[in-house]
Amino acid sequence: MKSFASLKNNKTIPRKYHVIFWVSYFCFNVIRWGSYFGDYWYSLKSNLIEFPLHIILVYTSIYFLVPNFLAKKKYKFYIFLLIASLGFLYIIRTGLNYLLVTKNIWPESDGHQQAFTFNHIIAVTLGELYVLALATAIKFTIDWVYQKKRIATLQKEQLKSELNFLKTQIQPHFFFNTLNNLYALTLEQSEQAPEVVLKLSNIMQYVIYDATKPKVKLLNEIQHIQNYIDLERLRCHENAIINIEIGGEIDNVKIPPLIFLSFIENSFKHGNKNSPNFYIYISIEKQPENRLLFSIKNSYEKDSLFKNSEKSGIGNINTKRRLNLLYKNSYDLSFLKNENNYCVTLNIPL
After folding, report:
1. 163: pLDDT strictly greater than 70
2. Residue 139 and residue 125: Cα distance in Å, rounded?
3. Which end of the chain has fewer CB within 10 Å, C or N?
4. What's the pLDDT at 170?
5. Rounded CA gap, 13 and 4, in Å?
6. Residue at 3 is within a domain
């Protein structure tokens, strides 16, 4: 009923198509009844009388009666006004036909019939209801198709907006941490400072420009991950082990940007970075069934996984939300924790 209520402002059908419909229907009726009576001149005159009345009834019903009464569940008023409209139209149509077209008011029936008889009223009313039902069905069908497309477009735009919003939440704290590290390096006049500036610039360029696209090349995403890891190494023990393994043909693979990053961030966040035993193993593999398998395993501090759980969970929550929006039920995400390491596995379709 909501679509009925918006009919007054509904311009789903351009005016030219209204004209085409009525002209086509008029021509069809003239030929049809002209052939039936064997008198095309009579058919033309009678349709010239009747069609303006058809049009008035149809648009009165669709744009006034339906949205103001039927859509608002005022059924008695709707039925009363529809019957009154049909009665008024019958009087006008019959009178004009009698005065301007023929004294035989119902030529298609047997013998000479009189106006305002029960059978004539029923015949004319059923004819008007037929025209009204046909035009209304066409109108509402087109409206339904239009609304369906409009809803699909809105959902797509909402999805795009939400994905963009989620992506903007991913890395701000990383930038702050890196700037702090850069500040410390500049104070020490470290030779690493220019390299840090370059990698940070590459990361910012990727996030600001490339990550705004629906999909990016997996090779570019891996390069972004490598730049991120190189900067995080500045805060890790010099003996820390961080490896990335790539498997399968990934040259032409594209994926949503930044889909793996929150898991990598958490590996650094919850791992004991100052320990010589700290490690992170990352695996990205294209599988034969056109899916991509990502896994990351890291050593961790037992208590760190539960510290500040509300804050630390934002990245994973955002990633899960993005996965649900992008893949619905076609992805697999699992978490495995034991005494020594924490492992995340994600399997997505390509």
Report:
1. no
2. 21
3. N
4. 54
5. 15
6. no
For 171-195, write each residue's pLDDT tens digit: 566 677 677 777 777 877 777 788 8
How large is the angle between the packed helices 75-100 and 40-60, nearest 10 degrees?
160
Q: What would you measure as the largest C-alpha separation in the chain, in angstroms?
A: 113
pTM above threshold 0.90: no
- 348 bridge partner residues: 292
Burial class (CB in 10 A: 0-12, 13-18, 19+), 170: buried
Q: What are phi and psi of 237, to 5 degrees?
A: -65, 145
Beta bridge partners of 152: none
User: 340 CB contacts (<8 Å, ≥6 apart)?
Assistant: 299
Query: Given the DSSP bridges, would you call strands 241-247 and 279-287 parallel, antiparallel or unpaired?
Result: parallel
CA 234 to CA 264: how far, in whole Å? 15
Number of compact structural domains in the chain: 2
Last residue of a domain, one of 131, 164, 197: 164
How many whole angstroms separate alpha carbon 299 and alpha carbon 268? 9
- The answer to whether residues 206 and 152 belong to one domain is no
CA distance 65 to 59: 9
Element (H, E) at 81: helix 75-100
Residues 156 and 188 in one domain: no
My answer on whether 120 and 159 are in the same domain is yes
Q: In terms of domains, do 20 and 42 share one?
A: yes
- Per residue in 24-64, pLDDT tens? 999 998 898 888 878 888 888 888 998 999 999 999 999 89
Last residue of a domain, one of 164, 180, 205: 164
Does the CA dihedral 287-289-294-297 come out positive or negative? negative
Q: Quick one: pLDDT band at residue 296, thresholds 50, 70, 90?
A: very high
CA 294, 298, 302, 303 dihedral sign is negative
Same domain? For 157 and 183 the reply is no
pLDDT of residue 294: 94
Give the domain range for residue 112: 15-164
Give SS3 for 279.
Answer: strand
Give the helix/strand (H/E) hosting 147: helix 118-168
Q: Choose among 276, 317, 278: nearest CA to 301.
A: 278
